[in-house]
Amino acid sequence: MTTLTRQTLSHLDWLEAEAIHIMREVAGQCERPVLLFSGGKDSICMLRIAEKAFRPGKFPFPLMHIDTGHNYREVVEFRDKRAAELGERLIVRSVEDSMKRGTVVLKHEGESRNKHQSVTLLEAIAEFEFDACIGGARRDEEKARAKERIMSFRDEFGQWDPKNQRPELWNLYNARAHKGENIRAFPISNWTEMDVWQYIERENLELPSIYFAHQRDVVLRGGAIFPVNVPLAGGEIINIPKPGEEIVNMRVRFRTVGDITCTAPVPSDADSVDKIVLETATTTITERGATRLDDQTSDASMEQRKKEGYF
Amino acid sequence: MNAPTNQHDNGLLRFMTCGSVDDGKSTLIGRLLFDTKTILEDTLTQIARTSQKRGMDAVDLSLLTDGLQAEREQGITIDVAYRYFSTGTRKYIIADAPGHEQYTRNMVTAASTANLAIILMDARKGMLTQTRRHSFLAQLVGIPHIVVAVNKMDLVNYDQTAFEKIRAEYLAFATEIGLQREGRDIRFIPMSALNGDMIVERGDAMPWHTGPTLLEILESAPAAHTEKAENFRFPVQFVCRPQDSTNPELHDFRGFMGRVESGEIAIGDAVTVLPSGRTSTIKAIRLGEEKLQRAIHEQSVTLLLEDEIDISRGDMIVKSSEAREPLKQLDAMLCWLSETPLSPARAYVIRHTTRESKAKIGAIEYRVDVNTLERHAAQNLNMNDIAKVSFRLAQPLCADNYAENRATGAFIVIDESTNNTVGAGMVI
Q1: Cβ pair A192:B84 closer than 8 A
Q2: In this predicted model, which residue has the larger pLDDT, B4 or B372?
Q3: Parallel, antiparallel, or unpaired for β B327-336 and B355-368?
Q4: Which pLDDT value is given to residue B281?
Q5: What are the domain boundaries of chain B?
Q6: Model confidence pLDDT, tens digit, residues A176-200
């Protein structure tokens, strides 16, 4: 006896169900996966999805953060607190250690460490023999990501070859890889920034404080709002303003959170999730548009970084 | 199940666009994104700048779907791109596939997850070979809703007779290939993507068209799985056995995790596990820590059974009244995706739901020419070829007919030497 079910899932339920399915496929197909957790909003959603996918069991993978050493104190503290609450193992590998090993060499002292995360990530993959990294990248973020597979194959150098991707049909994912090769899996590929905020609202997820409107010292640099005099967890202060730059104390929030040297906040009064949902619905600027200084170098900078092993 | 987030949430629709840049496909997508206010100011500024640089008078909306560096350099689309927009009541995922013949595999890829296809035609040109090809592929991959969009009406002075002529021509073709016979819903719409007529706004150039606009069709298209009765199919992805000795409640916990591919299930239902044939009853349904009474198609849940039976990844839980004999060989329509031709002598791996089996080609019955739809004999298959093929399987698979169930009738073929996905199959 077959049944006709007219009922259908709401769009958030559907996106959640798809993401759970993808995470379980990684766990089912791969020997040693890892979930990349930065303390940012997308990876916070990923942890909730992992709970829905695997509880009451433990996650079948550890969490890992590649720390540039230039992350906001609030986010790093949140990262550690959240992992402890979940009772899951958190691995942190740092770009500074790669610099000490000599595998990351900065062009000059002030160069952003953001793109060098790729090196540290590949070193961690080799160290733990991870065969899959689960990440919170979304296709709506950037045009190079719009064409990446949900299960994206990387060769032994971590490189993405956009012209030679595995066809991906139905929901039949192929996460096979030979030893040394790697799969990057993106369970929330089909989510938009709006979906993420609606999900955070619905699931009542806690976030690091810098996602909400707060007062901050900034300067205007190259058309972006650039945060200055930011204290790191160790007490060091970075993003020192250049001589002649005028410091303004502004009410801002972060739409994306990453390396302090290349993530800019936006002016905002939204100090709660529902206000952010409203603001997201009416904004005129894309998520990475005014906020990711690393994407603005050229039309293809994300594509270029991904080819070199970036997430 | 979670309560719907908002009363008017009409779920999510996945659709694809078929056509070439010449048909105005990129302009159409750009128009949909633009008129639903998905495109933000900075993106618009960026494409306005590029349009100007290329010497165009107006903002070229087709630039919005420009993808990779390699594509921009060559001025072509080489891969499926996914775009998103929302109307507030429904979320949309567009699979944008390049239309050229050598990209048949991309069209099949885009079609595999689509519930609706927009087939674009140029009002000046009418039916072309590619229209036939796109329609055939949409039919092959089982897309239930087809929208034939007759674009560039502005270039034929919005002439109704031109539109009616194309409609009649297409309907004759649809009858010929059996598009309608299978109960497919075919709609026609005259439009100008360039000027925005009949896409989101009606415009006033075609008062003679009283049917819905494109967006109205999209908003009212039935969601997947809601149009016909379906069997319950639950491929097991992962088995959860928490090793927590401190919590007695979890001592005997054995959760079977997966996604309801079709149909629905409730506590108390009698189920059979395939291929073993063992039976039990649903004891509990969970979504994380939350306890549910029932689960429906596309929901990812955890099932608990009354009896302790051996179940692992790759097994399928079905309702006992809907069980089916596992297959040791199968017939399928196969689309070859790889630059390395299919070798009938070799063994491949078939992945069907969460199960894998070694497989050998029994015979290639015929190959279909996607342009003429003629059948030819074939000894091997090259990239973009579509053929009727039989397989012999090392392990039994619990497959349904693709026409009845797109999730459990589909499989991919993997080449173990490269681990590449080399074929896409649909069971017949």
Answers
A1: yes
A2: B372
A3: unpaired
A4: 98
A5: 12-220, 233-322, 327-427
A6: 999 889 999 999 999 999 999 999 9
Please write the tens of the pLDDT for every residue from A44-93. Answer: 999 999 999 999 999 999 999 999 999 999 999 999 999 999 999 999 99
pTM of the model: 0.93
The C-alpha of A55 sits at a distance from chain B's nearest C-alpha, in angstroms, of 5
Record: contact A165-B258, CB cut-off 8 A:
no
Q: What DSSP string describes B163-210?
A: HHHHHHHHHHHHHHHTTTTTT-EEEEEE-BTTTTBTTTB--SS-TT--
Rg for chain A, CA atoms, rounded: 20
Region B12-220: CATH code: 3.40.50.300
Query: Which of A1, A170, A286 is nearest residue B40 as measured by Cβ atoms?
Result: A286
Per-residue pLDDT band at B304 (split at 50, 70, 90): very high
Q: Does A147 touch chain B (CB under 8 A)?
A: yes
Q: Chain B closest CA to A109's CA: distance in Å?
A: 30
Class of domain B327-427: mainly beta
Q: Would you tell me how many other CB atoms lie within 10 Å of the CB of residue B88? A: 11
Distance CA B376, CA B120 (A): 28
Residue B411: per-residue pLDDT: 98
Using a CB-CB cut-off of 8 Å, the residues of chain A touching B262 are none
Q: What is the C-alpha to C-alpha distance for residues B298 and B16, in angstroms, rounded to an integer?
A: 20
Residue A209 contacts B where some CB pair is shorter than 8 Å: no
Closest-CA residue of chain B to A192: B84
Q: Provide the β-strand partners of residue A7.
A: none
Q: Which residue ranges form the domains of chain A, and what is each CATH number?
A: 11-194+300-307 (3.40.50.620), 206-294 (no CATH)
Any idea what DSSP says for residue B6? Answer: S
B3 pLDDT exceeds 70?
Answer: no
Distance CA A209, CA A308 (A): 32
Tell me what the mean pLDDT of segment A118-131 comes to.
94
Chain B residues in contact with A88 by the CB 8 A cut-off are: none
Say if residues A34 and A132 touch (Cβ distance below 8 Å). Answer: yes
End-to-end CA separation in angstroms for chain A: 47
Interchain proximity B420–A7, CB inside 8 Å: no
Radius of gyration of chain B (CA): 24
Of the residues A8, A86, A140, A200, the best mutation for testing chain B's interface (the one with the most B CB atoms within 10 Å of its CB) is A8
B114, two tokens: 């689509």
Nearest CA in chain A to B250: A56
Burial (CB count <10 Å: 0-12, 13-18, 19+), residue B173: middle
Residues in A closer than 8 angstroms to B257, CB to CB, are 24, 53-54
CATH architecture of B233-322: Beta Barrel (2.40)
Answer whether B233-322 and B327-427 agree in fold.
yes
Return the closest-CA partner of residue A19 out of B300, B265, B303. Answer: B300
Q: In angstroms, how far is the first alpha carbon of chain B from the final one?
A: 34
Which residue in A15, A27, A303 is closest to B69 by CB distance? A303
Residue B182 Cα to chain centre, angstroms: 17
Which of B78, B219, B312, B421 to substitute to test the interface with A, most A CBs within 10 Å? Answer: B421
